[in-house]
Amino acid sequence: MVARKFFVGGNFKMNGSLKEIETIIERINEAKFDGEVELVVAPPALYLLKIQEELKPPAQVSAQNSYTEKSGAFTGEISPNQLKDANVHWVILGHSERRSLFGDTDKLVADKTKAAVEAGLGVIACIGESLQEREADQTQAVVERQLEAIANEISESEWKDIVIAYEPVWAIGTGKVASKEQAQEVHANIRQWLAKKVSQTVADQTRIIYGGSVNGKNSGDLATAADIDGFLVGGASLKPEFIDIVNSGK
Ligand code: PEP
């Protein structure tokens, strides 16, 4: 069996003043982390460089979004090449809030992913179904459609730079976490899909992390599922329990 390094991302979204975020970073810097974990935190873009200076290994910063182009007349956007230039190695793309509030389509997410990987970044690529889609039994079809859009732009060798975050929209920020069985079922199907559509090696090596109301109490159980390789954490990443989540890996 291939060992996949446990991966935890903290998505601060548009939360926190600089002072508040520095307090969170201090807590992360002082924490003891068990074993091997890859840890990234994504503060608002404005604070990336300051937080990057203050954050201690193993933690790294991540951006919450980046655009498809290297430079140009795209007011308000950040290019993946600029992130790379600033030594920001990670970016979250396709978050459900970007998809539902800011018009990030499957194709745009795929094009952003391609541009980020080409710039040399690691991408946390978010996919997941809405409640309506789950109730209509469309979960697998939706995640496959979102994955396929990315797979159409990415070569087999580029998958090593991608972490897939399965985030059911109905679980994000709602307090309604997916059960271990629900999450494991989708993660296993995603892995099978990668094996069939990309390659067995990519299926074995790609981290598939879960996001949606993960907290310090439910992370330990979720982390025991065979195909859950870590977490993308929103609300709880701002709280002391984030350290427990980071330490919940097997
Ligand atoms: C997220 O925004 O990616 C997320 C998973 O949020 P929360 O943990 O708050 O549900």
Automatic annotation (TrEMBL):
Gene3D superfamilies reported in the protein's UniProt record: Aldolase class I
Entry's transmembrane regions: none
Keywords: Gluconeogenesis, Glycolysis, Isomerase
Keyword Isomerase among record annotations: yes
Gene Ontology molecular function, alphabetical: triose-phosphate isomerase activity
GO terms, biological process: gluconeogenesis; glyceraldehyde-3-phosphate biosynthetic process; glycerol catabolic process; glycolytic process
Top EC group: isomerase
Biochemical pathway: Carbohydrate degradation; glycolysis; D-glyceraldehyde 3-phosphate from glycerone phosphate: step 1/1; Carbohydrate biosynthesis; gluconeogenesis
Name of the protein this chain belongs to: Triosephosphate isomerase
Species of provenance: Kwoniella pini CBS 10737
